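I have been asked to look over a protein record a colleague put together. Alongside the sequence sits a line of tokens, each denoting a local backbone shape. I have pasted the whole thing underneath without changing anything:
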Amino acid sequence: MKQNSIFRDELPGEKKSIINLLMTGYIVVISCLGYAAFFLYIQLGQIERIVGTMDTQNLAPDQMELLKSRVLRSAVQLKNEMIGMAIVGSLVSVIGGFYTVSMIIKPLKKLVLFAEGRGTTELPEIKSNTEIKQLATAITELTESLNQTASIEKEQPQPTQKSL
């Protein structure tokens, strides 16, 4: 019989896991890196094609300036895209860091305090069914059983040892 109302029952088909959340984050990061690699490949191929057509003997100065301006424009666009992707990556990292602190680190610190106090401090409210909720449930059951055995031992008189 569960008497802790702070834990909600797992819903049918609900499979939330911290590992699944982290793996989803890794998949997003790998996808972004794949996009960046593809973008770099396309841009550098364009620059390579432009530079390959530069033949100083057969080009007029105005044609050379046109090719130079195209290479510079591609390089500036490439630089701006990389700065944009770095900013987006930094924002995702900061959001992921705050999410990790709020989902994992803070509840674990409260669980440590709860376990050290042997169930006398307030247990953190965990709404989703993750590994941390399972750990909190196990620690709660363990502290309750320890408190029950301690109260039973206090009620029973201790036998005294007789000298031999």
